[in-house]
Amino acid sequence: MSTSTPLLVFAGSTRAQSFNRKLATQAAALAGAAGAQVTHIELADFDVPMYNADLEAQGTPRDVVRLKEIFFAHPAWLVVSPEYNGSYTALLKNTIDWVSSPIKGDPNWSSGTKPFAGKVVGLLSASPGALGGLRSLSHLAPLLMNLQCWVAPKQFALSKAGDAFDSEGQLVAESARSSVQGVVDQVLNAAQRLNG
Hints:
Shape: globular
Order of helices and strands: EHEHHEHEHEEH
Number of helices: 6
Helix content: 25-40%
Radius of gyration: 16 Å
Structural class: alpha/beta
Distance between the termini: 16 Å
Largest sheet: 6 strands, parallel
Strand content: 5-15%
């Protein structure tokens, strides 16, 4: 498959040895090999405080505006979500809450849904458990749909993630690579169709 679609990839974790960050790296590599213009970001690189309307009233943080710009610029996304207590992480929710908050008086960002509307989003997760973080995706999908994203029906949850990567962070099983590739291909195909 050949595409020049701009694709954003990020994980909802900042932990150094995060399985989800490893999975995001693998997904980004597969997408790049498929010809996508991949932007792989780390949420740890953005200075985003916990959302607080009083803080926001003093001015939207610059890194939140940067994230709005990045999200908006990419018609296709891959979001790799850890599972905490059967749901997605506070980091991921906080990021989405900030990016979806309108900036009063700003002609570019007066709409909260602008960075999200019409984006084609593929969801992946990784967990040491048997379900692979699947429950986090079942919570994340409706959140993104509420923000007018197109959530790809094909998803992948990597179970037993502690044994899934080799010493270089590569996926060991061909079946896992194939499943990630399936999500990547569906997202890129759909984004191309929706964006002409």
